């Protein structure tokens, strides 16, 4: 992607879990943004992608062990798209995706169920999250009768395009009440 192409991308502000505000770019139904965090006294910078049509956020965690570098961590998210600002909230269900010759793993269905039982999700929201998770798995990862060991559509092409762009990271930690 050229510098001109990067300039054509729509700028957007991402609010991540009401904790981080980050500058991002939108290409069709995918948003890319860089953000940072501290863990065990070290600071990290992470690139994430919001798949608006799936309601999932994906990234290749910088803190994965060496043997899992390049693997993907996918989060079911609630997305509030206000055009130039997008709020992304984690909704517990996660999927880890390694190379196509490895099975993917679905995590935290128990946490999702607990959240639904506690009323943190309405019945309609809980059902929608399960439907979106199944659609994500079927569309992106589930192989039918294919002989070739590839993911049907993962990562999506727009993510591959956006992974090559460089833009100045601009993110900040939000204080309570700032989101």
Key features of this structure:
DUF402, alpha+beta, 179 residues, FomD-like_sf, 4 helices, single chain, DUF402 domain-containing protein, globular
Could you give the order of strands across the largest sheet? 1-2-3-4-5-6-7
Sequence of secondary-structure elements: HEEEEEEEEHHHE
- Contiguous runs where pLDDT drops below 50 for at least 5 residues: none
Tell me the strand percentage band: 35-45%
Measured as a percent range, the helix fraction is 10-25%
Structural class: alpha+beta
Q: How far do the termini sit from each other?
A: 32 Å
The number of distinct β-strands equals 9
Bulk shape: globular
The chain-level mean pLDDT equals 91
Radius of gyration: 17 Å
Total helical elements: 4
The multimeric state of the shown protein is single chain
Organism: Dactylosporangium fulvum
Protein name: DUF402 domain-containing protein
Pfam families: DUF402
Domain DUF402: 44-138
């Amino acid at each position: 992607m050229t510098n001109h192409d990067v300039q054509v991308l729509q700028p957007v502000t991402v609010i991540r879990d009401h904790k981080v505000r980050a500058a991002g770019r939108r290409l069709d139904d995918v948003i890319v943004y860089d953000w940072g965090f501290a863990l065990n006294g070290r600071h990290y910078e992470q690139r994430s992608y919001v798949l608006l049509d799936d309601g999932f956020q994906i990234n290749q965690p910088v803190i994965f062990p060496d043997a899992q570098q390049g693997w993907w961590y996918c989060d079911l998210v609630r997305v509030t798209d206000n055009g130039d600002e997008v709020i992304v909230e984690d909704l517990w269900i996660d999927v880890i995706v390694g190379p196509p010759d490895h099975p993917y793993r679905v995590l935290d269905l128990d946490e999702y169920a607990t959240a639904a039982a506690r009323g943190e999700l309405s019945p309609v929201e809980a059902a929608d999250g399960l439907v979106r998770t199944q659609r994500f798995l079927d569309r992106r990862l589930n192989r039918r009768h294919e002989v070739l060991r590839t993911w049907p559509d993962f990562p999506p092409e727009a993510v591959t395009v956006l992974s090559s762009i460089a833009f100045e990271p601009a993110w900040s930690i939000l204080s309570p009440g700032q989101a």
